[in-house]
User: Fold this.
Amino acid sequence: MGIPQPAFYIFKCQQSAPPGMPKPSCVSQTNPESQQLMQHLSQSLMMKGIIATVSPIQTSCLNRCQQGPVILVEPGHTMYVELTKEKIDRIIDEHIIGGNVVSEYVINDMDWGEPIPPDSMIR
Ligand code: FES
Assistant:
């Protein structure tokens, strides 16, 4: 038997736009809580004893900057937006542990359409 896979990967956008940049970013100098969310996510997973089977990953921009801070949960392609520490705790309890997507925090359909199959993009 091999080394077990993680049950989930949680990709946390850690992009921080430089001062003066017109575009918003998931980690903001003007939103102190946004700077603490990655650490909060990792600590919460550790405190619940599930860090071995849920892998938090820091990423750069996930292209949904207007709705930040965002995370992407895999498997499932579930994009959660406008995150706070409280929302992350609920996502861990209800989605990761409980198996139920927290639909009220999920990005809207207009901003998260169906994926484009790679074979349909080949020219
Ligand atoms: S800065 Fe986070 S999605 Fe773009």
Remarks:
- The CA atoms of residues 15 and 60 lie 5 Å apart.
- The helical segments are 37-47, 85-97, 118-121.
